[in-house]
Amino acid sequence: MQAVILVGGKGTRLRPLTADRPKPIVPIVDRPFLAYALEWVARHGMTDVVLCCGFRSDAVVEAIGDGSRFGVHVTWVFEPEPRGTAGALKMAEEHLQERFVLLNGDVLTDMDLSAQIRAHEATGARATLGLVPVEDPTAYGLVRLDDRDRVTGFLEKPKPEEIDTDLISAGAYVLDRDVLDLIPAGREVSIEREVWPRLVGEGLHGFVHRGAYWMDIGTPQRYVQGVADVLAGRVRSAVVDRLAGGPVHPAADVHATATVAPDALVEAGARVGAGAVIGSGSVVAAHAVVEAGSRLERAILLPGARVAEHAELRECVVGQDATVGAGCRVGDHLILADGALVEAGTQLAGATVATAQA
Ligand code: GDD
Ligand code: MG
């Protein structure tokens, strides 16, 4: 089966991580975010992938290429302007098969797509929405089901008083091609607001994914959490196989007195000084440096970042080639911009975002 992935989002809440790179290619551990979706669909036998792109697609094309590095073959579809979730799909019409999977490109998940496809085929639905339970459905599409898993109501971004279930649309759909007939061409169309409500009672089913990992990584807090979850193997991904060989790349330079947690990663060309501690959920990317005595806990250093001596970093991101001075403390899901400089001794917990020095 074919997979179509929507990758038009801007990722404004992850700035400045997304200032110079679109969200689909923000690095998660050692590869672009979109690689996880590509490897995930490939694991379910979908190697024919259509990517519907809008914003900053040049950078996405550069990072993903023809997809072969991630086990898929990519067909690119570009929108002249944002067409919305259904409008973007409509633009891909000429490439689509009789039945296909449509995915939101901004979630990290290992849901069992094969099981959802089997359910779609068994019920004879026209569209089957993958569903997950969440604590607060207000930011999502709430889905009401009957006892045969037919959708009886779809409410995008429900008001608190409308919430009567914890099931939401997970952004993974199995669709029959005739659903495209419900999408007008040539304008912005939201699949959530204009298509699903029209399909209620007309062949719209739900499939509940129980126990799967599912997370939208669109905020700094969830980004840091997502990286930690990938490293710890809480979400199934190709990174888990890679880390089976240990958290330190053979071409990294880690001092004998430094400590690296098993669910961390120190990449090729990186250096970790004497007594430094690279704790759980941390990444020291290629050619990044952690000097003597510094401690990282769920801290993510992008390539070329440098942390000077005796600094403490917790739940934060240090941008590419950015520098954190000696004795600094950085925390609170802070994202330091690429090239930023934090002066020695600075305490940056509780602050919002540091911008690059001119
Ligand atoms: N190509 C393209 N063009 N992609 C788009 C466009 C567009 O105009 N608009 C949105 N997308 C992509 C986004 O990049 C994202 O991957 C996906 O479509 C969903 O859009 P979001 O803007 O992230 O929507 P949301 O998170 O508020 O809600 C959606 O996802 C929830 C699950 O995370 C809805 O589908 C909800 O129903 C769902 O519960
Ligand atoms: Mg989203």
What does this protein structure show overall?
Residues 351-358 have low confidence and may be disordered. The strands form six sheets. Strands 15, 16, 18, 19, 21, 23, 25, 26, 28 and 29 form a ten-stranded parallel sheet that branches. A seven-stranded mixed sheet has the order 5-4-1-6-11-8-12, with helices on both faces. The chain is elongated. The termini are far apart. The protein is an alpha/beta fold and 358 residues long. A hairpin with a 5-residue loop joins strand 9 (141-145) and strand 10 (151-156). The protein has two domains: 2-221, Spore Coat Polysaccharide Biosynthesis Protein SpsA, Chain A; 245-354, UDP N-Acetylglucosamine Acyltransferase, domain 1 (3 Solenoid). It has seven helices and 29 strands. The protein is 18% helix and 30% strand. Residues 104, 106, 216, 218 line the site of magnesium ion. Magnesium ion (MG) binds at residues 104, 106, 216, 218.
Map the helices and strands:
Elements: E1 2-7, E2 27-28, E3 31-32, H1 33-43, E4 48-53, H2 57-64, E5 73-78, H3 84-91, E6 99-104, E7 107-109, H4 113-123, E8 127-133, E9 141-145, E10 151-156, E11 167-176, H5 191-199, E12 204-208, E13 214-216, H6 220-232, H7 238-243, E14 253-254, E15 259-260, E16 265-266, E17 271-272, E18 277-278, E19 283-284, E20 289-290, E21 295-301, E22 306-307, E23 312-318, E24 323-324, E25 329-330, E26 335-336, E27 341-342, E28 347-348, E29 353-354
Parallel strand pairs: 1-4, 1-6, 4-5, 8-12, 14-17, 15-18, 16-19, 17-20, 18-21, 19-21, 20-22, 21-23, 22-24, 23-25, 23-26, 24-27, 25-28, 26-29
Antiparallel strand pairs: 2-3, 6-11, 7-13, 8-11, 9-10
Magnesium ion (MG) binds next to loops.
